[in-house]
Structure formats: C-alpha cells, structure tokens
Amino acid sequence: MLSRTAENLYWMSRYMERAESLARILDAAYRLSSLPTAYGGGLTEWESAIKTAGCEEDFLAAHGEVTSEAVIHYLAFSRESPASIRNCLERARHNARAERTALTSEMWAAINGTYLEMHEIEAAGDTQRFISFVKEASLRFDGTAYRTMLRNDAFWFTQLGLFIERADNTARILDVKYHVLLPKHAEVGGGLDYYQWASILRSVSALTSYRWVYRDSVKPWLVADLLVLKEDMPRSLASCYSNITTYLDRLSMAYGRQGPSQKLARTLYGKLRNGRIEAVFQSGLHEFIEEFIAANDQLGAAISEQYLS
After folding, report:
1. For residues 95 and 5, is the Cβ–Cβ distance under 8 A?
2. Rounded distance, CA 78 to CA 71, Å?
3. Which end is more exposed in the chain, N or C (fewer Cβ atoms within 10 Å of the end residue's Cβ)?
4. What is the pLDDT of residues 141-189, one digit of tens each?
C-alpha cells in the first residue's frame, strides 16, 4: 500500500473519532450545565470542554472569554477552528474521497452522507440534535468498516487511527476532570464529585458498564480503574492499546518487519495490562495521564515515520 493511501485512511478514522469525542464532550457539558450551581452548574464545565479539546489558547484568542454560546460554536460549527466537529467531518470526508477505491461503497456512503446531512442540521441550529447526529454518524462509520472491509492493511490503518485518537481523548477527559471540574474546596466523593463523575461516565457511554462491573456508587478511583485499566471496557486505555498492538503486529507480519511503533505499543500495553489503580493514584493520576498522553503522541509520530511518510 502507498504511504499516502495509508495516511489518508489513518487520518480519516482519527477525524471521525475526534468528531464523536467532541460531541461527547459537549454533551457532558450540557448535562453539567443543567445542574444547579451547587452541583456543578455554571461556566466550569464549558471551560473544561475547551481544555479537554486541547484548544484553550486558540479559543481565548478568538473569543476572549468563556461562554456557553462561544464554546458550542467553536467546538461544533466554527469554520475557523481546526478543532470543530464541522471541520473534523469535512477533513474525514476529504481523506475518504481521496481513497474511495480503498473503501467499500457502504463506508463511502456513510461518510459522504454524514457530510451532506451535517449541513442541513447545522443550518437548523439545533445543537442537541447535532450532537446526537454526530454520535450516530460515528456508529455508522464504525459499523460499516467492521462489517464490510477486508481484513487487510487498509482496515488495519483505519483501526490504528481510531484507537490512537480514542486513547488520547479518554486520557484527556480523565485529566481535565481532576484539574478543572472539581473545585479546590470541594470534597472528593461528595455530591458535586458524584454528579461530575457520573457525567463523565455518560460522556463515554460507560455509566451502565460501571454499574455492571463494580455494583457500587460512583467513586473516582473506580471510574479511573474502568477507563484506564479495564480491557473489556471499549474506551479504556488498556482496550485501545490491546487493539493497537494487534493491528501493528498484523502490519508487521504483512510487511515482513517490525519497527519502533511495535516496540512502543507493546511497552505501553504492558504497563496498562500489569498496572494497578492503587499504584496509579499513589504516584498521581495527573502525572500518569500526562506521561501516557506524551507516550501516545510519541507512538503516533512513530507510526507516521514508519508507515505514513
């Protein structure tokens, strides 16, 4: 496969996953903003949305201050913001269009249909409908890829993009919760903490899974355990790296050699698979996640150098 084709497929999936993640971030902010101030209402959740998306500096340069309307526009509809859902979907469609022969007709229809329908919903100005639409569009994309693509290098690169992006997004959501959503004077495990952690679980479709696994009230260390170390949780860091190592190994077998990306992925997967949440909290969740995000970025760079350039 040409490196340009691999790159387009890889980034097509990353942009689709990023669009869904942004929709989930906005959905979580909406849920928290509907609560009374004593339980997390106010502007804090909108600040957290911008921080989680990693675009705080650019947002403040464009808008000056954080308001719900400005955040929604910037993350959902803005043509100028590289972080907006609109631009992510447009870039995903651009990459898919460049590689139509590498996609099944169902995959192209899912991506192209999403792009066309996006403009109709955008014009209507219904943000909640737009958020639901983006999440459903991501499910259609995942479903058509899983059900219709041959299990070859084209499929493996689309999956690598998806799981690299998903791991980054899950880590950022966890990190921002600890440093933005919970005020310094609030009690960990208190009422405010409960509502915010429950909202985070809903934002990654994990609240029901949490109850099945732990059969306990929402507690920060158990939420972190679920989203970091539980391999059977689809959005957890461990689950993402189980898939990443699998697809990198398949690429190495298909191309006849291994490289830095396989080594880095196995190292990270080993740390997650053998980790214990008590040790993570003892050393600091924020420090653990910062280190993970940097390592995940390093792996993305290694994949690009090894396969996409």
Report:
1. no
2. 10
3. C
4. 999 999 999 999 999 999 999 999 999 999 988 887 666 555 554 444 4
Pure H helices in 177-236: 191-203, 207-214, 220-228
Q: Which of 224, 102, 305 is nearest to 213 (CA)?
A: 224
Crossing angle of helices 220-228 and 207-214, in 10° steps, is 100
Phi-psi bin for 40: left (phi > 0), alpha (psi -120 to 50), beta?
Answer: left
Distance CA 2, CA 199 (A): 42
Q: Which burial class, exposed, middle or buried, applies to 56 when counting CB atoms under 10 A from its CB (0-12, 13-18, 19+)? A: middle
Q: pLDDT tens, 243-293? A: 999 999 999 999 989 999 999 999 999 999 999 999 998 888 889 999 999
**Distance between first and last Cα of the chain:** 12
**DSSP letter at 2?**
-
Rounded distance between C-alpha atoms, residue 146 and residue 159, angstroms: 9
Task: Let me know the angle formed at the C-alpha of 48 by 125 and 282, rounded to the nearest 5 degrees.
Answer: 150
